[in-house]
Amino acid sequence: GENVEQHPSTLSVQEGDSAVIKCTYSDSASNYFPWYKQELGKRPQLIIDIRSNVGEKKDQRIAVTLNKTAKHFSLHITETQPEDSAVYFCAAHSSASKIIFGSGTRLSIRP
Amino acid sequence: DTEVTQTPKHLVMGMTNKKSLKCEQHMGHRAMYWYKQKAKKPPELMFVYSYEKLSINESVPSRFSPECPNSSLLNLHLHALQPEDSALYLCASSPGQGMSEQYFGPGTRLTVT
Predict the structure, then answer these.
(1) Which of B2, B89, B104 is the mutation pick for testing A, counting most A CBs within 10 A?
(2) Contact B41 A46 (CB under 8 A)
(3) How far is B18 from chain A (nearest CA, A)?
(4) For residue B98, what pLDDT is reported?
(5) What does the pLDDT look like over A8-30, one tens digit per residue?
(6) Identity of the residue in A44, A51, A99 whose CB atom sits nearest the CB atom of B98
(7) Test mutation, A25, A30, A43, A57, chain B, max B CBs within 10 A
(8) A104: exposed, middle or buried (Cβ count in 10 Å: 0-12, 13-18, 19+)
(9) A18 CB near a chain B CB, below 8 Å?
(10) DSSP collapsed to 3 states, A32-68
(11) Residue A97: which of B48, B100, B106 has the nearest Cβ?
């Protein structure tokens, strides 16, 4: 079946450095790609998203890039801060009822 | 009101019980979702209501039964659950049919004994 692969599963970076998380999807009909941040015991919250007609989107320290040909998209966080520590999920939507999440990346920011 | 609310926050039920989870949003969103999330795993989509029509995920057991009384409310009726159904159940809503931002509720942590 269709799936979304996410790497790495864990990531530890020094405060102030950049973090990159990558996802690859298999369903060529996918056209909406959100990224969620989930802190321990909390709900997932959208941090940035991108649609298939756009190659890159940036919001302050967070950016997402999409390569439709290769079917992969990436999350970039610059100038990381302790409050960026959380689990990050990518997802791919290909229809109203077909939404697949990646397996998650646990990001830790070292002070 | 930009929140999705869920009740109860925690639920413990036996395998013979019948219980319901409730979800509410007042953002005028026309799509609502139920997800199941096990510990250290991503959310898994269970059901979608889009403009009050149900899209069924065929892999969800019939012991889970969704209901959408109106465009603001979403219920999940539970009956004869198994211990492996213990998880965090998340409700979400979005303005349109899936290709837009989803707003998640805080979840109901369900334990089946």
Answers:
(1) B104
(2) no
(3) 25
(4) 60
(5) 999 999 999 999 999 999 999 99
(6) A99
(7) A43
(8) buried
(9) no
(10) EEEEEEECCCCCCEEEEEEECCCCEEEECCEEEEEEC
(11) B48
Q: Yes or no: say if B53 and B71 are a contact pair by the CB < 8 Å rule.
A: no
In this complex, is the C-beta atom of B99 within 8 Å of any C-beta atom belonging to chain A?
Answer: yes
In this predicted structure, what is the pLDDT of residue A2? 84
Residue B77 CA to residue A55 CA, distance in Å, equals 41
Instruction: State how far the Cα of B36 lies from the Cα of A68, in Å rounded to an integer.
Output: 29
Q: Which tokens go with A61?
A: 């320290």
Q: Distance between alpha carbon A85 and the CA centroid of its chain, in Å?
A: 14
- Say if the Cβ atoms of B48 and A101 lie within 8 Å: no
What per-residue confidence (pLDDT) applies to B1?
62
CA dihedral A11, A12, A17, A20 (to 10 degrees): 0
Cα A59 to Cα A48: distance, rounded to the nearest angstrom: 7
Q: Locate B33 and state its tokens.
A: 């979702």
Instruction: Label the pairing between strands A62-67 and A56-59.
Output: antiparallel
Q: What is the per-residue pLDDT across A56-78, written as a single tens digit (0 to 9) for each?
A: 999 999 999 999 999 999 999 99
- How many CB pairs lie under 8 A apart between chains A and B? 54
Residues of chain B with Cβ-Cβ distance to A98 below 8 Å are 45, 98
Each residue's pLDDT tens digit, B31-61: 999 999 999 999 999 999 988 889 877 789 9
Q: Which 3 state secondary structure label does DSSP give A90? A: strand
